[in-house]
Amino acid sequence: MSSAPPSRRSAPAWLVERLRAAGGSVPFLTYMQWALHDPEHGAYGAGRLQVGPRGDFATSPSLGPDFAELLAPQLAQWLAAQPAGEPLALVEAGPGEGDLALQLAEALQRRWPELAARTELVLIEPNPGMAERQRARLAGSPLPCRWLSFEQLAQQPVRGVLLAHEVLDALAVERIVWDGALWRRQQVVLHEDPAAGPSLRLEPGEALDAEMDAQLEPLGLLPAGAQRPPGWCTELHPGLGPWLQQAASALREGVLLVIDYAHEAWRYYAPQRSNGTLMAYRQQQASNDPLQDPGHWDLTAHLCLESLEAAAGATGWTSLGQRRQGEALLALGLAQRLHGLQEQPSSELGELLRRREALLRLVDPHTLGDFRWIAFSRGSAKPSTGAVFLDDPPLA
Ligand SMILES: C[S@@+](CC[C@H](N)C(=O)[O-])C[C@H]1O[C@@H](n2cnc3c(N)ncnc32)[C@H](O)[C@@H]1O
């Protein structure tokens, strides 16, 4: 991992053009939106990033089907809690390579065929490059599949489960900088140097408006206090409210499960975390420089649990609770699955060792085990909490 980000970075021609058209600078939020989601130049928009151990970064489902096999009983329980006989949907937002959707469809079909018979898969993927790969991956899905936008789904909202696995960390964030007297919005600024060519820099911009300023107090950022020196920087998450609102319009009744990197506000905004949580990933490398090679790196920021809960409450979701992934997967039988590997034929030793390593990575508190599972419900039916969040038994 690189240490402090360099103060200037060269800019690709497309970004120079955009920044010139915008008057020479844009808020970090706009830059992150372009660098990730621009259909032509964005890392996801252009379908450039590959999820998986051999791609740019690994996620839990990309390590193999054990993650989906453990998650499936929880989702099946939530689906089964919907009124009998009604058509159901398993909606996945941001399905990446489509691995998790396919593995869940296969698990449902094999273990709960009656539930599967009335369940469709709905994939929400704003980036055409990614959707193309998902279509190929899900060509053999045992459940019918549709690719829709949230707006399209809102025309005929569904009942069931909406899953957002490592998606909300890809929503563009606002970066804010303390200058010793005021909080300012961080800008990405184009510097035109006739000798060295155009370059990019991160600079504090205008002071926060009253609406953004009002968000700081509940997060412990007002007053900034002597512990935060000038230049101290962090993120706010203005994309959460609109995303949760769209999600609410698409799901008339059921459960939203968010699985992502997240911290409580006290941890997220602790004075010693002086550069927020924003990271860049590419080809299994991590960097804290968001300006290098724009459109070729994944940019990701943790969620703040309190900000997510507040945005969910304001958009009509009822909280079912949250748990660390390690605890959630152990509640769903990960230890038994690990133990069960001993009973597999030793002729498959290579595969058994790979699965053992994957299972241990899923619960490792220093990596994937520290992810949070955060659940919300909506609709008139009594919310079903599920085994992970309370001690109801999941479907066997
Ligand atoms: C980090 S990948 C996660 C992929 C997959 N869920 C996994 O865990 O392997 C993020 C995915 O979310 C998609 N995405 C980004 N912004 C989104 C949004 N606003 N709504 C839905 N999907 C989005 C990206 O194109 C990509 O497919």
Task: Tell me what you see in this structure.
With 396 residues, the protein is an alpha/beta fold. The chain has a domain at 324-379. Helix content is 32%, strand content 23%. It is built from 14 helices and 18 strands. The protein has helices at residues 13-21, 28-37, 66-80, 99-111, 113-116, 128-137, 150-155, 210-214, 240-250, 265-268, 305-314, 325-331, 334-340, 349-363; strands at 9-10, 25-27, 88-93, 119-124, 145-147, 158-165, 174-178, 183-191, 199-207, 233-236, 251-260, 262-263, 279-282, 285-287, 298-300, 303-304, 318-324, 372-378. The chain has a 7-stranded mixed sheet, with helices on both faces. Helix 3 (66-80) crosses helix 4 (99-111) and helix 9 crosses helix 11. The longest helix has 15 residues, at 66-80. The protein is globular, with a radius of gyration of 22 Å. The two termini are 43 Å apart. The model is unreliable at 391-395 (pLDDT under 50). The structure holds S-adenosylmethionine.
Topology of this structure?
Layout: E1 9-10, H1 13-21, E2 25-27, H2 28-37, H3 66-80, E3 88-93, H4 99-111, H5 113-116, E4 119-124, H6 128-137, E5 145-147, H7 150-155, E6 158-165, E7 174-178, E8 183-191, E9 199-207, H8 210-214, E10 233-236, H9 240-250, E11 251-260, E12 262-263, H10 265-268, E13 279-282, E14 285-287, E15 298-300, E16 303-304, H11 305-314, E17 318-324, H12 325-331, H13 334-340, H14 349-363, E18 372-378
Parallel strand pairs: 3-4, 3-6, 4-5, 6-11, 12-16
Antiparallel strand pairs: 1-9, 2-8, 7-8, 7-10, 8-9, 11-18, 13-14, 13-15, 17-18
Bound molecules: S-adenosylmethionine (SAM).
